[in-house]
Amino acid sequence: MFELLTEKLGRIFKELKGRGRLSEKNIQEALKQIRLALLEADVNYKVVKNLLEEIRQRALGQEVLESLTPGQQVVKIVREELTKLMGEGRRDLDLSDKKPLSLLLVGLQGSGKTTTAGKLAHYMRKNGYHPYLVPVDTQRPAAIEQLFKIGEEINIPVHPSNSTERAEDICLKAKEAASRIGSDILVIDTAGRLHIDENLMEELLRIKGIIRPAEILLVADAMTGQDAVNLAVKFNQVLDITGVILTKMEGDARGGAAISIMAVTNKPIKFVGVGEKLDALEPFYPDRMSSRILGMGDVLSLIDKAQAEFDQKEAVKLASKIKREEFDLEDFKKQLSYIQKMGSLEQILGMIPGLGQMLKLGRLKTDERELVRFEAIINSMTPEERRDYKIISGSRRKRIAMGSGTRVEDVNRLLKNFGQTKNMLKKLGRGTLRDLSSLAGFG
Q: Is the pLDDT of residue 9 over 50?
């Protein structure tokens, strides 16, 4: 995510931080380079102009020129101005309407609208709601069937739409059905086109007039850059959208759409799609995103992911076992499975300050297969071996390797890693463990 922009800004800021004092000339030169980096990242040129003016005024002020760490002060200013540009704080969905309320997803074909409907429904259920998926895309062949498959996969009810019905009639029937079955939120997947046309907008306006949605969310492909921004402008002019969901953010190496949309439309990005899986939808936090763009990581999002996947009772039990020095290979395997649920290893490490840049420079390697191998090795052990890894002799290691389809070297590496982990946990005091549990929300 934002790989190209992060890399270029990183080089600029490294040079600034390397200077003990900054002159006005140094800052002007850095601003020129920042401008070029943003334009190459496909950020709207008017947005770049306004952003650079804000940064310039602050960077040439006393907080930088008289600072003991002027380079760091410039980075701080850039981060704050980027955050302000993207909307400052998190913008939640407005769910204050009388239930059942409707979330209307609009956009063009190919933006991932139907999949996003499933992701949003899955997100809403995780947050205590009872969503109802409504397919009203009667234009695209198999669109209704696709949403039914998604609903079946995530165990969320889908309204039995008919491709011969009018979209607005489907919505009315779906609202009645939602009331009957106790659903409180309708997630409506509307029809798209290959381009904006009058018929599409007229249909969406009719739906809006009849169901009065709580939110009209434009689903746009982040990788299309300024095309996504222009799309947001046009949909907003006709429908007065309430927000944007940017899809395919994990593949967006530039970041132009994410940086530009709020400034151009005055409508916030509310969610971002960060993968193909149906749980790969994240709330959009401008401050966290600006930290990612500047290569500072995103620890808060990492903690959110951990809290979503870790079972609180299991976490308390694990902390207790660590205190009693009873942490074994079975516990180690459980932690590996939690890490796999949180997403790709590269994505997780990229949220930790410093490690993201090391990944880009090739100084840190990630191999998802390593986690799978470790799990297979532990599964090939006897319960006794999992409880006490020190009894695993040379002959046992050969047997475990053969049973797991791995090599003895892989078994040795696992046992070495586990031994190091166990020693590290042993050094942690009771107070440290309590603080860690509390930080993660388990204490």
A: yes
Residues 268 and 317 in one domain: no
List the domain range (segments joined by +) for residue 271. Answer: 101-295
| Domain shared by 192 and 324, yes or no | no
Confidence of residue 323 (pLDDT cuts 50, 70, 90): low
Residues 44 and 156 in one domain: no
Phi/psi at 227 (5° precision)? -65, -40
pTM: 0.70
CATH code of 386's domain: 1.10.260.30
Question: Total domain count for the chain?
Answer: 3
Please tell me whether residues 71 and 217 are part of one structural domain: no
Give residues with Cβ within 8 angstroms of 119, minimum separation 6. Answer: 273, 278, 279, 280, 281
Q: Which pLDDT tens digit goes with each residue over 235-246?
A: 999 999 999 999
Q: How confident is the model at residue 363 (pLDDT cuts 50, 70, 90)?
A: very low
User: Look-up: residue for tokens 């306004």?
Assistant: 50
> Can you read off the two tokens belonging to residue 443?
């204490």
Q: Are residues 259 and 113 in the same domain?
A: yes
Q: Which residues of 3-23 are buried (b: 16+ CB within 10 A; e: fewer)?
A: bebbebbbebbeebeeeeebe
* CA count, 13 A, side-chain hemisphere, 373: 17
CATH number for the domain that contains residue 77: 1.20.120.140
| 3 state DSSP class of 184 | coil
**Strand extents, DSSP E, 265-315:** 269-273, 281-283
Note the helical H segments in 127-213. 143-154, 167-181, 198-211
Under the banding of pLDDT at 50, 70 and 90, the label for residue 429 is: very low
92 assigned to some structural domain: no
Spatial CB neighbours of 122, under 8 Å, sequence gap ≥ 6? 154, 156, 278, 279, 281
